[in-house]
Amino acid sequence: MIKRKLVLSFPENIVTKPITYRLVKEFNLEFNILRAEITPNMEGKMLIELKGDKAQIDEAIKYLNQTGVTVQEAVKDIITDKNRCVDCGLCTSICITQALVLDDRSHKLKFNKDKCILCELCLDCCPVSAIKVHI
Ligand code: SF4
Ligand code: SF4
Predict the structure, then answer these.
(1) pLDDT value at position 135?
(2) Residue 117 pLDDT
(3) Where are the beta strands (DSSP E) in the chain?
(4) Would you identify the CATH topology of the domain 2-73?
(5) Residue 5 CA, ligand 1 centroid: distance in Å
(6) CATH number of 77-134
């Protein structure tokens, strides 16, 4: 029995299909949704933890890819380097879950880890490389 933490991206045309239900029913996996978000253009992002036999998890990932879901291994953590960040706000426009926002009063960057789905979209946008993956 192993555990894998994955980020699933659902394109608009399959976002309402019962794909996750089939993961449990057909692959005999324990399935835990840690965070989920649907973007304004209806793309779905989900951070999940799968528990089960390695072979079954591999099969489930194959099935997900075949249905059009993009599967990425979830990195451990996103961190923002306060010493580098210049609070330009660029990353806040990319973060679909609003885990990264500028504080209304101080105009400083705030990072809410509980909202982060580890999609890594913010990693390449920072002009001063203040956003990093902590493994
Ligand atoms: S893009 Fe980089 S510098 Fe700008 S607010 Fe985000 S972390 Fe800070
Ligand atoms: S990885 Fe970055 S862009 Fe994605 S949810 Fe977390 S903070 Fe937002």
Answers:
(1) 65
(2) 81
(3) 2-10, 30-38, 44-52, 70-73, 77-80, 100-102, 109-111, 131-134
(4) Alpha-Beta Plaits (3.30.70)
(5) 26
(6) 3.30.70.20
